[in-house]
């Protein structure tokens, strides 16, 4: 499938996401929907921290 990223070794598991998801804020204003989901953004942040990418 084009455009679908494969899950990485260090991506959040479903159990970890179930714990973290209720702690994240929910958008309160209408507008354009986000381009990426919160889970994907958090996985990206964790990757950058883990590998030391600028």
From TrEMBL:
Q: Which InterPro entries match?
A: IS402-like_dom
Q: Which Pfam families match?
A: DUF4096
Residue span, Insertion element IS402-like domain: 12-54
Originating species: Saccharothrix espanaensis (strain ATCC 51144 / DSM 44229 / JCM 9112 / NBRC 15066 / NRRL 15764)
What is this protein identified as? Insertion element IS402-like domain-containing protein
């Amino acid at each position: 499938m084009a455009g679908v990223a494969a899950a990485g070794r260090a991506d959040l598991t479903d159990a970890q996401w179930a714990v973290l998801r209720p702690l994240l804020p929910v958008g309160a204003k209408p507008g354009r929907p986000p381009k990426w989901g919160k889970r994907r953004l958090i996985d990206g942040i964790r990757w950058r921290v883990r590998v030391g990418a600028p």
